[in-house]
Here is the input.
Amino acid sequence: MLIVVAIAAAGLAATFNFLIDPYRLFGVGTWVGINALKPASAERMRVVKPYLAERFDAATVIGGNSRPELGLDTSSRCWPASHQPVFNAGIAGASFRMQALLAMHASGTTATRILHGVDFLDFIRPTDASPTQKSSEPATESAHERRLIVPGQHFRDWDYWTQRTGDQLKALFSLTTLADSVHTIAAQRNPNASTRTESGFNPANDYLDIVRTEGQHVLFAQKNRELASRMSREYQLDPDDGTDGDGFTALRRLIDWSKSRGIELTLFINPYHAEYLEGLERSGQWQLFEQWKQLLTDIAEGGGVALWDFNTLDAYAAETPPAPGDRRTILRWFWEPAHYRSSLGDVMLERMLETTCGAAADSASFGAQLSSHTLLDHLASLRQQMQSRMEDRGSTLIRDESRQKQQPATR
Here is the structure.
């Protein structure tokens, strides 16, 4: 009798978890007030996003880390009809290799375009790191890769089906999922509950909650402290020598794979707030930052793909953060120094897609497309703007001559 009761209880729990679908793993229907918001999914995007992508026949895929995941809205009015539907494959905390693999997986057999963000921190390593040290645990990367289908690289093999079966059984029968299902229902009363859309976009609801309760100043202060702590070490670029797992190797493979599939690839350097760029300068990393852009430009130009740089020190990036205690003001373009809002993402789309959608009156001046002919002038202009900003703020530029002499390794 107890066995029958246990089986019945497990069946009821599995049915409940399946219908609520707290992680969007099964793709069942959503009902406003019951399970439309998925707060539990936010912590499991590396598990869930491959499933979201597989159910989504995208024409355009957005790739990268958490910056484009928050900044490029898949439902934006700036997407031309020929580019839709759009899937956002941005993933927080993953290596560039994993970002690129997920973008390729999301492309499936339908995508004709990939817009992929590139981020400085994904292409550097501490100078005291071992040659084989990676940005994430190899075993973890391997587990995530087993969920992917990438033509020519990852297939529906035994590992794929084993991983998929394990994910689904855990999502149906675990007590953690049951608790998350209950939490999902309870969280519907909070319109700012964290969530992800079916198309992979992060609407940053949780940021709105923080702004409302603590103010946006807290977000800026926290991110500035994090950057200062991380950049206190000495860094070097990943070697561009074909080493598996390194950022530049993954970038070259993404370019080659896209070309072989007839997919139009566009690369873009994510926007940073001026305070983030100033943090890079204060840490003495600016020369390495420029060397990274030089190597990116060489790789993109050699691969025949467009590369955009949205690092600026203009009105978009230089908004003054709200004062401490101000819980009403919110910046138009940025959530905090490292993450831009979808309003700025729309300006980027106007530039990269050569379209007009009313994102901003002067959007044509934002960012620059890099090439070997324009790069040096572009870097010099941004360097001069930083010099002026630092002088206005009573600071001086940090110039580490030993770093300035370093040249990025090339293959």
Summary: DSSP finds 15 helices and ten strands in the chain. Residues 2-405 form one domain. The longest helix spans residues 2-20.
